[in-house]
Amino acid sequence: MKAFFEGIEYLFVNILFAPHDFLRSLELSSWFAANTINWIFMIICAGAMVYWIKQLKIFEDAGTEKQDTTAHSFFK
What we know:
- It holds the Pfam family DUF6341.
- It comes from Flavobacterium weaverense.
- The chain crosses the membrane at residues 31-53.
- This is Uracil phosphoribosyltransferase.
- The protein is an all-alpha fold.
- The chain has one domain (1-61).
- The protein contains four helices and no strands.
- The chain has helices at 2-16, 18-27, 31-34, 36-62.
- The N and C termini lie far apart (56 Å).
């Protein structure tokens, strides 16, 4: 049973966390390079939010947005 848990430890520590260890060591030389993934996710989220707001504006201008409280049966 001990070998089973040591196998799980090896999997997580030496294989699955290897990219995190690389980014941690990269941060000592370049903060911007180490945080590139974070910047990419922030750009994707900002783009998704702009798209979502544009879609809300399109439905609002078309008048198809149903805003009364009886739009769903569970609000009654």
